[in-house]
Amino acid sequence: MSKQGGKGAAGKGKKPAKAGGDDKREDALQAVIIADYFQDRFRPFTLDKPRCLLPLVNVPVIEYTLEFLASNGVQEVFIYCGTHSEDIEQYIHESTRWSPNSIISPFSSLEFIRVSDATSVGDFLRDLDKRSLISGDFILVHGDLVANIQLDAVLAKHRARREANRDACMTMLLRSVGLEPHRAAKARGITPVFVIDDTDGRCLQYDEIHPLMKDRRLILDPSLFKHESFEVRSNLIDCGIDICTPDVLALWSESFDYELPRKNFLHGVLKDWELNGKLIYTEIFEDGYAARASNLMMYDCISKDILERWVLPFAPDSNLMHDQSYRKVKNNSYVESGVLVERGSKVLQSAIGKDTSIRAGSLISGSVVGRRCQIGKDVKIKDSYIFEDVVIEDGAVIIHSILAGGVKVGANAHIPEGSLISYNVEIDRDIKLPSKPPARISAKTDDGEPVETDASLVGPGGKGATYSVTVHDSDSDSEDEGDGDPAQLQNNLIYSLEGLNVSTLSVSTLASDDDYDSDEDEEHAGYLHAGDGQRERLSSFTSDDASKPDAFHGDAVNGLVDALRGDDNADFDSAKLEFMGLRLSNNASDSSMRRAIAVAFTKRAAEMLNPEHGGLEPSKAAERVLRGKNGAVKFIKDVGVGGDDVKQQAEFALALQKGLLNIKGLESGRAGTLLAALLQQLYSLDVLEEEGILAWWADKRAAEGETMTTVKEKCKVLVDWLEEADEEDSDEDDGDEDSD
C-alpha cells in the first residue's frame, strides 16, 4: 500500500529491473490515469466505491482503461488516487493481471500516487511535475475511459512533430461523428468546439457551447485569419486521450488557477500562445471506439454499446476478467455459468452474471444483472443496471434505473425511470417510488453513518432515505460532463432518445424453444427484432409532422431535389456534403433527415410523371430517380435508412408513403403505384430487405386514414409476391432438411 509523507505520497510496485533497464527508461511509454474526478455525479454509489471500480457491464470500469493502455504498448503506469485510494490500490494489488508483482502484468511498473490536499485535476498534474517521474512522452487518460483504438500511427506523428519543432507539446485524440455515430456522440449537454488548422491539424482555439446559453455564437480570435485555412468543428467527441510531453506538466505548474484540462488548460494555453509558444495538435480518427463513463448518460450509452458489440474486443463473451465465463445465447444476450432461467421467462439483449436465478414469467430486456442476484416470478426489468447480490421479489417492476449491490426490492414494488438505489437499500413490498423527481436513495450519509430510514419513501419494512447532493464548483465548471447539477444528470438518465437523437437497438423477441426465449404474451408484444450488431435510430412521424415547416427541412429538400434534377449519372457526393452540412448546422434529428430524404426523392419521382418532366411511367420514374445519380442509392441506405435494421427500413418506407401523400396534385391511387415501384426498386438495390417492407406493411401507421390505406393497398401485389417468395424459400429449406 501507499506510504504517507508530506503533501503527497506514492506507493510503488515494480518488477525486478532488467539489465540495461535504466538506459531504456527514457524510451518507455508512460501513462497517467486520473482516478479521482472531484465530482458528485455518481453519488450515492461512490460513497461505497470509487467511480473507476463501479461495474460497467459487470466489469470494473478501470479494467477497460488498463486494457486500452496495455494494448497500446504502455510500459509504466501512474495512477493518481483521491477518495477511496485504499480501495483502488487493494483492487489492483489483488488482481492477477494488473498487480505490480504479477508475472503476467503487461506493465514493467505501476505506481499509485496520493495527493492529500488535491481539489482538482490541475492539482494532480502540478504535483506530477514536481515529482520528476515523467521522462518522455506520456498518455494522459481518466480511469473511466473505454476505448479500443490503436495509437501507433498517432504516436509516430506526435513524435515526428516533436522532432521537427520542440514546441509541439501535446496531441489530442478526437473521434469524428460519422453517419453512424455511437451513442456517445449525442449524449452530452455541452458541445466542445475546436478550431483546427486543416493543413496540419493544429488546434488554434477551443470553446464550449452550453445548451442553456442564451448566446451560442462563437467569437473567433482575429489571429486565426492569419492561417491559410481552418475548420470550426463542433462534431467531434472528446474522449479525453492526450499524448503529452513533459512541457505540458510545466504549463500546468505555471498556472495555478488551471483546474480543468479543457475549459481551463486548453483554452488558456491556446489563448496565450504568443506568450508561451507551445503548439497543441489534434488527431481525428474515424474508426474505432472511445468514450468516457463520465456521467449517468454516458454510463448508460457505453453499457448499451458494449452489449451491442460496438466496442470489440470488449464484449461480455470476451470474458475480460479471468474468472468470467460469459457465453452468447439467443436474443443477443450473454449469460455466465450457473445462471438459472426458468421456462416462461425471457432474457432479451442483456447480460446476466454468474449464479443468478430468474424465475418463471419474468422479462429482462436491455439490462445488465450482476452475480448472485435472485429475480422472482413475473418481474419486469427494462433498460436497467442491477449490481451484484440484489434480491428482487415477485411482481416487481424496474424501469431504466440503477440498483447497487445488496439492494432488496419487495414484491410488487415499482421502481420508475431514473431511480438510483444505492448499496444495501431495501424497498418494501407494494411500494411505488416517486418518478418526479426520480428517487435517489442511500442507506448511509456522506460521513458513512447509517441514515434514519424514511418509511414514507421505502415502506415500513424498508431501509434507506432520500440522498441529497450539494453541487460543488468542480461540478458546475466541468467542461465535459454535461449539466453540473447531479440531480439534473439523474434526470438525464431518462432522457428522451428521440430528442437527443441517440441510437439504440430494438430488443429481439424471436420465438424459440430455449429457456432464454419462451412464448410471447401481450404485455411483451411491443418489441421488434433486429439482427446482431445493428442499430435502430429512434424516430417516427408521431412527433415530426410532415407538413411542419422548418429551416433544415426546406433547405435540405430543395438541395436534394436540385441535385436530382441535374444531369444523369452526375456524382451525388456534393449534394451529400451539402446535406450533411445542413444537418450539422441545424442539429437535425435522424427522423428529420429521413423525412427530408424521403420527401426529396418522392417529389422528384412524382415530377417525372408529369409531361413537362418526361411523362414517365411510375416504374421508369422510380428507376430513374434512384439509379440516375452515382452515389444516390448509397446515400439513401447510409443516411436515409441508416442501416440494415428492419425497424429502420420500415420507418423509411413509411416516410416515402407520407412523402407521396403530401405532394399536391398527385392523386392517391397514382401515389400508391409510384410507392410500389419505389419499394420494388429499393428491394432490388438491396436498400430495403423483404423483412423491412413486410414490417412496414404490418405497421398500423401505414393504414391510418383513408388516403394512407389507398396508397398502401396499391403495394399489395408486391407484398404478396414477397410473402410467396418467403414461403417458397421456407419450403425449399424444409425439403433440404428432409433430404438430410
From TrEMBL:
Keywords (A to Z) from UniProt: Cytoplasm, Initiation factor, Protein biosynthesis, Transferase
Compositionally biased spans, kind Gly residues: 1-11
Assigned GO CC terms: cytosol; eukaryotic translation initiation factor 2B complex
Compartments in which it is found: Cytoplasm, Cytosol
Chain segments carrying region Disordered: 1-23, 434-488, 527-547
Domain W2 intervals: 547-732
Domain of life: Eukaryota
GO MF, any single term: transferase activity
PROSITE patterns: W2 (PS51363)
CDD domains recorded: eIF-2B_epsilon_N, LbH_eIF2B_epsilon, W2_eIF2B_epsilon
PANTHER family: TRANSLATION INITIATION FACTOR EIF-2B SUBUNIT EPSILON
Assembly: Component of the translation initiation factor 2B (eIF2B) complex which is a heterodecamer of two sets of five different subunits: alpha, beta, gamma, delta and epsilon. Subunits alpha, beta and delta comprise a regulatory subcomplex and subunits epsilon and gamma comprise a catalytic subcomplex. Within the complex, the hexameric regulatory complex resides at the center, with the two heterodimeric catalytic subcomplexes bound on opposite sides.
Family assignment from sequence similarity: Belongs to the eIF-2B gamma/epsilon subunits family.
Protein's name in the database: Mannose-1-phosphate guanyltransferase
Annotated source species: Apiosordaria backusii
Upper taxonomic lineage: Eukaryota, Fungi, Dikarya, Ascomycota, Pezizomycotina
